[in-house]
Amino acid sequence: MKEEWTVFALTKSLRAIAGALAISAVCASALAAEKVVAVTSYVEHPALDAVRDGTKDELIAEGFEPGKNLKWDFQSAQGNAGTAGQIAKKFVGDNPDAIVVIGTPSAQPMVAATKTIPIVYSAIADPMAAQLVKDWKPSGTNVTGMSHMLDPVPQVEIIKRVVPNAKRVGIVYNPGEANSVSALNNIKGELQKQGITLVEAAAPRSVDVAPAAKSLIGKIDVMYTTTDNNVVSVFESLAKVCNDAKIPLIASDTGSVKRGAVAALGVNFYDLGRQTGKVVARILKGEKPGDIASSTSKNLELYVNTSAAQKQGVTLSPDFLKSATKVLN
User: Fold this and answer.
1) Is 322 exposed, middle or buried (0-12, 13-18, 19+ CB in 10 A)?
2) Is 270 exposed, middle or buried (0-12, 13-18, 19+ CB in 10 A)?
């Protein structure tokens, strides 16, 4: 009888332990599935897409895998400011564990919409001008991120290496995008120091890019582009204008080189995405965004397109080609 009671008690204890383990497993599974990352990009083009993909790949490397322990919700504003505002409201209502904003026009309404949900920005040329953070120090707010701000000095150097006698540099930009205005002012100041004039043409919408570029024909020696989202989204149309008019086209986004630019010295946007993913992972693991300083990518690469150079009437020196990270034919 005593032995039967002992067996009964042991069996009961084992069942209790098994039940507790099952409950723990369910709880652990629930916790693992809790992480939600909402991602939005102002427009879809190769540079911003690379940031998005790099961010996701890094999260997977950090142990957060969509479909297993991470819900990945991506939405594009399709280049529409109103849509960007609607996405901001939706994401705030969804209350995810972190929000990733790619591009200034998407970042600004999101930062204005919430002061509590962690926000990680990326592909922002000047986060201070965009009023996302005050400086490069930890913000103490719910915002941090990665910038692709470029030093204008080497940008002007590339322009001069492609077109040594350039005196007038054209630029097409969106005056409504803080990212573009800041980049324009930076390059303009450096050009002026070297006796070179910047000739501007506004393109508030992507459909305005080609007409704006055509308005510069006969007024410039070379065309330069920043990472203006309107321009990059329809870069082929800008390249066609430059090809037809034999105007050398230089970009600051390496992804634009295979789309028709002669050369670009810029960040690797996929790598920028991987760095962004590391920041997001730190937040998902418990760190506060306000304790993480904003930073920039130092990984600059020079891409050159010899076919575009030929179409645009440019002869590139052997030394310039040798200095390139990648040469496209």
Assistant:
1) exposed
2) buried
Query: Could you give the CA distance from residue 173 to residue 293 in angstroms, rounded to a whole number?
Result: 29
Measured distance between the N- and C-terminal CA atoms of the chain, rounded to whole angstroms: 89
Radius of gyration, CA atoms only, the chain: 25
Q: Which amino acid is at 311?
A: K
Query: What is the value of pTM for the model shown?
Result: 0.79
| Segments in the chain forming alpha helices (H) | 2-32, 46-61, 81-94, 104-113, 152-162, 178-193, 209-214, 229-233, 235-245, 269-284, 306-311, 318-322
- In whole angstroms, what is the distance from residue 281 CA to residue 273 CA? 12
**CA proximity to 226, closest of 249, 253, 186, 258:** 253
Per-residue pLDDT tens over the stretch 2-24: 444 444 444 454 454 444 444 44
